[in-house]
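User: Quick sanity check before I run a bigger batch. Here is a single chain. Can you write out its predicted 3D structure?
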Amino acid sequence: MKIKAIFKENGGQGSAFNIGIENATGDVIAFLDADDYWYSTKLEVIIPYHQKYDGVQHNLLINGESRYVFLEKQGASTREDFIKYGFTGAIPTSGLSYARDVLKKKVGMIPEKEFTICADNYVRSLFLVYHDTLTINEPLGYYRAHSTNHFFNNKKQHMDLLVSATNQALERYNNEFNCELPMCEDHIYIYANRMYESLKIKSSDQKRYIIYGNGYAGNHYFERLKSSNQVVVAFASTYPTQESFNELPLWGVKELKDHEDQYDKILIASQQMVEIYDYLLEQGLKETKIIHPQM
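Assistant: Done. Predicted structure follows.
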């Protein structure tokens, strides 16, 4: 493997991406954060997919334990999600790889002053203006979560930059293809809407549901289920601090176990979907009862 070291003044992530893309000579550019690492098979897994797709993303294991997110298995519908919902994905830097020519000729330079962090949001979003990205659910790298991690310590800034990147991509899509896709005002709504859509609940299902999560996503699920005349039995939370939510009971795990005959499915309505899914299984809930989003 040939390694080329580029020494420059620290200008942030966007600056590092720009100079790396400019100096890259291979057909595919795969990104890696300094505090993460790839598993040894990563490149040999993704390169065959790049014969067909200009963009490939894969899952990661947080501290080598739990998946970063649940992903649709070997799916290529990320561009459709972008056009329909304004959703640009959830995979961070170390799970992304793209055709060099697309990054250089179409995505272009990353605004360095704005994206000193979260430049992956910009690349991921602008790429979807032009091409789809194949999603691999298999974790092919290690994502390190720690006290100095920029994402975990700057979530408000991260969300603001995600909205900015999404809107720049939407604006470019509208200009390129003479469309009028609406701008993203609230990325939390987009995320909740995309999570619900991935559950693939049909109006004909007529099951009895528990909504696990009493935040914004839980309320969004509730409104969507009500509008399709579905039955919501209760909300649930890991640590319920009140007895009800939206005029329905708010249960903990004990109630989920005690009243298992009163519901058919538990819908996870939280960005912490992986942690909640693992927790419910650890507490003895049946896997067949749990439905989690696939991003």
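Residues 13-177 form a domain with the Spore Coat Polysaccharide Biosynthesis Protein SpsA; Chain A fold (CATH 3.90.550.10).

User: Great, the batch can go ahead then.
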